[in-house]
Amino acid sequence: MFPDELRCWQEGLREQFPILVADPGQVYLDSAATAQKPQAVLDAVTGYLTSENANAGRGTYRWANRTTALIDQARSRVSAFLGDPSPSRSGVHFVSGTTEGLRTVARDWLVHELRDGDEIIVPFADHTANTMPWQEAVDLLARQGVRVTVREMPYDAAHDYDTRALPGLVTERTRFIAATHVHHVYGGDMNLARLRAAAGPEVIICVDAAQSAGHLPVDVAAMDADFVVFSGHKAMALPGTGVLWAANRRGARFTPGGWSGTPNTSGIVSLVAALDWLEAAGLERIARWTVALGARLTDGLRKLPAYEVLGCQRSLAADSQVQQRHGIVTLRHHAIGSNDLGFILAAEGFMVRSDGHCQAHQGEKTSSVRVSLHVYNTADEVDRLLDVLAALDD
Questions:
Q1: Which sequence positions are flagged as catalytic?
Q2: How far is CA 368 from CA 210, 233, 264, 307, 329, in A?
Q3: Which of 324, 350, 362, 384 has the maximum number of C-beta atoms within 10 A of its C-beta?
Q4: Would I find Flavoprotein among this entry's keywords (predicted)?
Q5: Would you tell me the crossing angle of helices 132-143 and 98-105 to the nearest 10 degrees?
């Protein structure tokens, strides 16, 4: 499962994260909330702030011109990272993160595109950030006398989008579908190619890529998506920056509303450095590593009767041929509450997420513990976690 060449590669990468090197006794398992930052990202930000910090698009001196150029170059860098097939037509817009990006699509684009009697499909078992903006847009239109029907995305037993049932929901009035690339609770790839096939060629699809960008290759051409949004801080950049990519192929061209203020220049600098680092490390290998770690964890958990692993039950074994989780494993103990389990793990040096994970109303009704892994995590850390969990097994 872990070839020697992959282990050596991973060891070299882990050493580039100062926060982990400084405190090896702590095990960080909350990368779905925010990823740790490699030294290259920290150096890029420090270098920018100590050599050419200025406001973009608001000066004629060298530092200001250089910052303006950095922002323009960053847009091109993001397009390349996403495999954008038509960068001259599409648009890259910097936002504060995924939540603002999705709200911007809803506020500045969707409300102007929908007409009375139109329909949209929303995934109400995904993150609330990918459900509330669309409902808010529909409510705003309703106050203006425009009636839009919200249909709930169907899910199958494995918590994937039910692409067999979806065509029955798509009508000639379906204008928009919100979707997620990798699920933030179940860890599965939500099969966007099958979603597009089920939805048909004309429906606008907006993708929340918060849990995939920086964890595995994100190919907007293969997705055939119209909008892709992700957060910088989950892709090893600084907090407070994110990307809204618009294809501008279906519907009206996307243009952000309002006045464009000062961009988060240091955040954008960190994002470019993070994308460079991730591509140099190899996103396909990062995905192989995190999937393997997740499979090692689920394989151990399935042997412990006190635990329930959320999501597809046919993919728990390490040798499962069913699609395995992308580094996100969410679990419950049958007797110990999730918050208590989180405190127990924290006392043992394991940093996990214990709550409802901001899942919308079709999601889990009971809180759980989420373990989210990245390339800097090791097989030894997973084994140590399993030892602690096994000690709590009934």
A1: 358
A2: 20, 23, 34, 11, 10
A3: 324
A4: no
A5: 30
